Amino acid sequence: MRDLFARDPDRARRFTRHIGDLVVDLSKHRFAEETLILLLDLARAVQMEARIQEMFSGAAINLSERRPVLHVALRAPAGSTLCVNGTDVMPAVHAELGRMHERVRSLNAGERKGWTGRNIDTVVNIGIGGSDLGPRLAVEALRARRATRLKVRFVTNLDGRDLHGVLEKCDPETTLFIVASKSFTTLETLTNADSARGWLTQRGCPTPNAHFLAVTCNDKAALKWGIAKDHVHLIWDWVGGRYSVWSAVGLPLALGIGRAGFQEFLDGAHAMDRHFQQSPLDGNVPVLLALLDVWYSDFYRAATRAVIPYDQRLRLLPDYLGQLVMESNGKRVDRHGRAVRQGTSPVVWGALGTNSQHAFFQLLHQGTQLIPIEFLLPLKADGDERHQLRLVASGLAQSKALMAGRKGREHRHFPGNQPSTTILYPDLTPFTLGALLALYEHRTFAEAVLWGINAFDQWGVELGKQLTTELVSQLEGGLAAAHDSSTASLLDLYRKRNTTRQG
After folding, report:
1. What Cα–Cα distance (Å) separates residue 277 from each residue in 16, 271, 290, 376?
2. Residue 307's beta-bridge partner residues?
3. Which of 261, 318, 330, 340 has the fewest CB atoms within 10 Å of its CB?
């Protein structure tokens, strides 16, 4: 890369792309002009543009579940048309969005009371996976944009310490719970919801179910659990959990930043949708990023990709992308069920920028593995400009050092040639965050198209769920069952320890 920059002083300009206020610098990557031409030929060979149009047309591109994939419909403006099996889904999408905004208005206006007549002032979202990571990331990232009086908290872990730690900060008379589960059968979520309901009952609430909302595709199960019909917000089976923050799953965000802020968030994502659907391949940023991902994974055998935000507000972005990318593209068969012949998703990981420099950046600079890196940097100071100047300098210094390296003897030699993308944005507004998350969604889909896999199922998650349900039944019922020797001995240790404590 040092030679590429030396031969072409205009390289940064030629390989930097702009999408609205987002600036994406691809110049610090191991590719020459010919490389990019060949990678674009690969995109054409897999009919990338046709596959993008299939998604936006409502075709059932999730082949294993025979479903369309329409998270793009959730942020399309009113008046749009998007049909599934001859039915336009947009009226239902905007009707549910209207119900969500009315919920935000009524809660913020104090029209919704707790059982003692006091105003609801705290909302606790109970969910896991896509029903937690997306809204939690967005709420934390946009906390400074808070436009309502409501406090929003999250519970996800099955470990009871998570729930109990949140409940310690809540008043049962003024707390409302959102149970977010697409299937409304998720063990972790329903266990926490049951315990939250018990907490209300133990503290004197005579109508605990009235303190619950549901966000689900399975309204019958929510009603059976005890949630009133007008307290159920619907999502659709064509929305994958990790793509659902744009739906009623995003209710915690709307409660935090208000109707106008949430609409701005949707608008940012829709702007990225238009870019992805309409841009030619050589200017299509999600496609270009996906091509580089495949270039490193399959041609360089890079097993991981690091995401390093130099922005405290994006602290949870690596966790969010871990699910988005690895649950989508961690597949060993193609979309027709045949074994793949190449690698698929890398491991996606990362942490905050300056913290990382004093932790694992040693590995990035002088380790033996090739790890493509992504830097995200805000240009505008949200507070102290002195801090911001040093923050930007730190991030840009790292990307330069990783690319250029430095000659030295033995321990002081830095080989450089480590590839990175730098994404700059003026400030983290709801619009910018929406555009960023949609960029990553479309990049993930484009990767799947290049690998010929289905990004929208997650059968690998199901086996562990099924076995967990079986083991819970056995442990709660005291039943014996045949297991491998390891599982059997570990279960026996748990039973003995549990029996000892009860005694």
Report:
1. 20, 10, 15, 24
2. 350, 374
3. 340
pLDDT of residue 477: 81
**469, 436: one domain:** no
Handedness of CA 383, 386, 389, 394 (dihedral sign): negative
pTM over 0.85: yes
Q: How far is CA 394 from CA 316, 352, 356, 433, in A?
A: 20, 12, 11, 22
Q: What's the pLDDT at 117?
A: 95
What does the alpha-carbon distance between residue 456 and residue 454 come to, in Å, rounded to a whole number?
Answer: 6
Specify the number of domains making up the chain. Answer: 3
Quick one: pLDDT at residue 503?
A: 42
140 within some domain: yes
Q: Which amino acid is at 302?
A: A
Looking at residue 500, its pLDDT comes to 53
| Beta carbons of 453 and 432 less than 8 angstroms apart | no
Question: Both 484 and 400 in a single domain?
Answer: no
Domain that holds residue 140: 71-256
Q: pLDDT averaged over consecutive 10-residue blocks of the chain (503 residues)?
A: 95 96 97 96 98 96 94 95 91 96 94 94 97 97 92 97 97 98 95 98 97 97 97 95 97 96 98 98 98 97 97 97 97 95 95 94 96 95 85 95 93 95 96 98 98 94 88 84 89 81 47
Q: Is residue 65 part of a domain?
A: no
Tokens for 72?
Answer: 């793009």
In a domain, residue 272? The reply is no
CA atoms within 13 A on the CB side of 476: 6
* Structure token digits, residue 158: 């099955």
Which is nearest to 244 in space by CA: 76, 75, 107? 75
Shared-domain flag, residues 187 and 161: yes
Taking the alpha carbons at both ends of the chain, their separation in whole angstroms is 67
Residues 6+ apart with CB under 8 A from 431: 264, 265, 267, 268, 271
Give the distance from CA 366 to its chain's centroid: 30
How far is 212 from 228, CA to CA, in rounded Å? 8
Tell which residue, 127, 154, 122, 159, has the closest CA to residue 140. 154
Query: Where in the sequence numbering do the catalytic residues fall?
Result: 327, 358, 465
Helix axes 430-451, 251-278, angle to 10 degrees: 50
Determine the Cα–Cα distance for residues 193 and 330; give it in Å rounded to an integer.
30
317-329 vs 133-141: helix axis angle to the nearest 10? 150
**What pLDDT score was predicted for residue 473?**
87
Is residue 423 within 8 A of residue 377, CB to CB? The reply is: yes
**Nearest alpha-carbon partner for 89 in 190, 268, 238:** 238
